[in-house]
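Page 47, continued from p. 46.
Same chain as before, 306 aa.
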Amino acid sequence: MKTGIITTDTYLNHDTGQGHPERADRVSVVIENLKKNKKLIWKKPLKFDTKYLKIAHESDYIDEVENSFPKKGLHFLDGDTIVSPGSRQASTDAVASIITAIDSVQNKEFKNVFCPVRPPGHHAEKDKAMGFCIYNNVAVGAHYLIDKYKFNKIAIIDFDVHHGNGTQNIFYDNEKVLYISTHQYPFYPGTGANNEKGKHDNILNIPLPAGTNSEEYLNAYEHVLKKLKEFKPEFLLFSAGFDAHQDDPLAQFKLSSKDFYDITKRTLKVINKSINNKVVSILEGGYDLNALKESSEYHLKALIEN
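Result:
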């Protein structure tokens, strides 16, 4: 079986306005680069039951978002989360991508899948948009695994440089989901201290200071691997943000592109037996185009080799 890529071009219509860091070029540069790799199989997302949005998010919030998409121009959901007329389809397709990816892995169509989509999702909480995120794509995916496929042990690894406050918020009381985040701290969004552990000790935050380099990061990542070994997940979801790269303009970590290969490879090596190769990865942050292109390619290299 091969590695799949699930995405659609509707991300191009999610207009965030001139000068906004979360722009269409982010996904375009990843897709154009990955298309050179003949080992990858491409697929478009299929329609999904929107009830899964309402499992991850409050119904009132879903209604609020649905009513916020403007007929023209831009609308602010918060200070930096902007929607345009094309955002309705782009945000729905981002969620559809992870659900289609999960189905494709479960049906043994692909061994694993990467979803280069936008808008990202991990800052979106149960009842509010934040940090460029409208729907929490990875959280909807985890709930889908629980509801449709009856999984009891799902791990979400979030290596975006910003803490995934939304994913933590959604799963804080859920013993079926282990959420692990490595991130710069203190930093936006201000959450992710190591005493935030979840109701069932199902949250592991690894806050690291600005300036963290490759060696320091990979040493700290051993705590991630230890927790994963103990949890023995049945399915792994990556919140794959590449903004911990040394060239990223929105943070101050010092990782290289190749570090994302090492992060992915080490993770899979530790838990391949328990997850039986069941992995879906979805794009979160990453705002330097060249760093994003290279880092995502290294991430895929590890997925392909797995």
